[in-house]
Design brief:
There is one protein chain. It contains five helices and four strands, in the order αααβαββαβ. By secondary structure, it is α+β, with helices and mostly antiparallel strands. It has a four-stranded antiparallel beta sheet, covered by helices on one side.
């Protein structure tokens, strides 16, 4: 028997394969670009989409296809660092100098060289800064102001069918890194595609202000984040 959590994650997988990650419009598997917003759509066949589905089944969320490039880059960097360390150790071993006595007396090793002691500056050393708040303190879930229009940053959209638990999980994860995180029912706003729970961050008065925060949202793990107007 399939558990409720597994069913929710399968619904999220189906939504990721059949809707645009930016605007939530329906898409066909063969389409390369969204017919609503023009976004280049992620592929739904092949190795990367299969990995995407496996990730969602295991963790219930997905940071974006960029994560696989990052993992490969990290693996190459780790392998290169290990090779460099091994080469340095071998070279040091090969360059060791063996001191041999030229007489029949005991071998006397060279006297150790005492390392030079750095002079302590006489001026007063700087003190450590006082601890302050973290860069991204955890925020509680916020609601969009009633009867207010504006701009925000969309992190993820979930179909309303079984999508609310996933949206709330995403809000809890995003609130630890970003400010003013909440959920919108897209059916209540004329500027949004109806039928979705939209996880957003930030309440802005202009598009320029929202655009300025998109890179921060993407660095927080939401690679598909984009600015969007919220209007009734």
């Amino acid at each position: 028997m399939t558990s409720p959590k597994a069913s929710e994650r399968e619904s999220a997988i189906a939504a990721a394969d059949s809707t645009c990650p930016r605007c939530g419009a329906a898409r066909e598997a063969a389409e390369g670009y969204c017919l609503e917003c023009g976004l280049r759509l992620p592929r739904v066949t092949g190795r990367i989409p299969a990995l995407r589905r496996s990730w969602i089944r295991r963790f219930g969320w997905y940071p974006g296809d960029w994560v696989w490039i990052s993992l490969v880059t990290l693996g190459v960097a780790t392998a290169g660092a290990a090779a460099a360390i091994a080469f340095t150790v071998q070279r040091t071993h090969d360059e060791e100098v063996v001191f041999t006595a030229t007489t029949s007396g005991p071998v006397v090793p060279p006297a150790p060289v005492k390392p030079a002691t750095a002079a302590t500056p006489t001026s007063t050393l700087p003190t450590a800064p006082e601890p302050g708040t973290t860069a991204n303190p955890k925020n509680e879930r916020v609601s969009w102001p009633a009867h207010a229009n504006g701009w925000t940053i969309v992190l993820v959209s979930y179909p309303k069918v079984n999508g609310r638990p996933l949206a709330l999980q995403t809000v809890a994860r995003a609130a630890a890194r970003l400010h003013e995180v909440g959920v919108l029912d897209s059916s209540l706003y004329a500027s949004l595609q109806p039928g979705y729970y939209v996880v957003f961050t930030g309440i802005y008065g202009s598009k320029a202000d929202a655009d300025a925060g998109v890179s921060t949202a993407r660095q927080a793990g939401f690679g598909g984040a984009y600015s969007r107007q919220i209007a009734r």
